[in-house]
Amino acid sequence: MKSNQEIKDTVMQKYSEIALQEKSVNLSSCCGAGGCSSEVYNIMSDAYDKLEGYNPEADLGLGCGLPTEFALIEKGNVVLDLGSGAGNDAFVARSLTGPEGKVIGVDFTDAMINKARQNLEKLGYHNVEFRAGDIEDLPVNASSIDVIVSNCVLNLVPDKKKAFSEMFRVMKEGGHFSISDIVLKGTLPEGLQSAAEMYAGCVAGAILKSEYLKMLEETGFKNIKIQKEKAIIVPVDILEQYLNVEDLKAYLDNKEIIFSITVYGEKASQACCSDSCCS
């Protein structure tokens, strides 16, 4: 099994390549990873083009949901986008928070940060910024964020408990998140679990849905709920690259194992605990 650092190095290398490749490649693969399919288009990605703030140059087709659509962002909010890529979700979030709010995107891949900043310069927004950083150690002040969004990124993080803890740290009391991510409802075949491309492709790094939700609850988030859920059907011509005939048949007999969820949660405000604390 690879160490956490080896996993991060794999993801960083792959996403540096993804930043430079055609969007059509990303849409016909798993989160832009190797193994493009000729069978279907848009394996994971949902269409953004009807959302206000959408910028085609910032859309690399790497998502597995539309978290900004469910994030209840209000004018003036400070929004944090985890794994901001080329800036797509950040720019949509900016249209909701307005010029009086602020959006911060964090990504640990230099090529993605550069691409996002180039897109930002073209748009001329002064209340959006992109910071290089690790989701397990966010370059963001404590209790400074109203809303956190993320699109198909946290499954790539080796230490999800630490990532969730960092989300909790930077969020204001009364703040909330809406995150689209990949989870499992069964066991992945070993061939998919061990493939570097499938880790970068948001599949091998996914954990059980029940474990994911429990981890969020144990972090301290409240009112956790699923806003959207859909099965991800990986095409046979991708699966054939990683599975033998026997494993492929077993997988196809129960192929609804991989799911995209959009999950919501809140950081509750601290209750007043004495007669004087609210005075």
Helix and strand arrangement:
Blueprint lengths: L3 H15 L4 H5 L39 H4 L7 E5 L5 H10 L4 E6 L2 H14 L4 E5 L12 E7 L8 H11 E14 L5 H4 L2 H5 L8 H11 L2 E10 L4 H4 L5 H9 L4 E9 L13
Parallel strand pairs: 1-2, 1-4, 2-3, 4-5
Antiparallel strand pairs: 5-7, 6-7
What does this structure look like?
The protein has one domain: 3-Layer(aba) Sandwich (Rossmann fold). It is built from 11 helices and 7 strands. The chain has a 7-stranded mixed β-sheet with strand order 3-2-1-4-5-7-6, sandwiched between helices. Helix 5 links the parallel strand 2 and strand 3. It is globular. The C terminus is likely disordered.
Number of domains: 1
Question: In the CATH scheme, what's the topology name?
Answer: Rossmann fold
Please trace the helix and strand order, writing H or E for each element: HHHEHEHEEHEHHHEHHE
Largest sheet: 7 strands, mixed
What is the H level of CATH, i.e. the homologous superfamily?
Vaccinia Virus protein VP39
Assembly type of the shown chains?
single chain
Strand order in the largest sheet: 3-2-1-4-5-7-6
- Stretches where pLDDT falls below 50 for ≥5 residues? 26-32, 272-279
Strand content: 15-25%
| Total DSSP E strands | 7
The CATH architecture classification is: 3-Layer(aba) Sandwich
Under the CATH scheme, which class?
A: Alpha Beta
Instruction: State the helix count.
Output: 11
Task: Tell me the structural class.
Answer: alpha/beta
Helix content: 25-40%
Amino- and carboxy-terminal Cα gap: 55 Å
Q: Calculate Rg over CA atoms.
A: 19 Å
On the 0 to 100 scale, the average pLDDT is 83
What form results from the Cα inertia axes? globular
